[in-house]
From TrEMBL:
It comes from Streptomyces purpurascens. InterPro entries: Beta-grasp_dom_sf (IPR012675), Mopterin_synth/thiamin_S_b (IPR016155), ThiS/MoaD-like (IPR003749). Gene3D superfamilies: 3.10.20.30. This is MoaD/ThiS family protein.
Amino acid sequence: MPKVTVRYWAAAKAAAGVAEEPYEAVTLAEALDGVRGRHPGELERVLRRCSFLVDGDPVGTRGHETVRLADGGTVEVLPPFAGG
């Protein structure tokens, strides 16, 4: 099973209480299920508003269950940012 690093930014980082952590998951959906299981509560609410990058590529509107993860990869969790 691929081992990936999930990195949290801004409100996601505050809700998780950590900047990054490892997960084992085949798809983005599986990784996010792991995140929700480890951090129930506020982070679950923040995730609903987030966008995601997988190895630097935007996930966009693709179904999270279709986004495969590579061993050693990175998932960036990006809440909406204010300002410009």
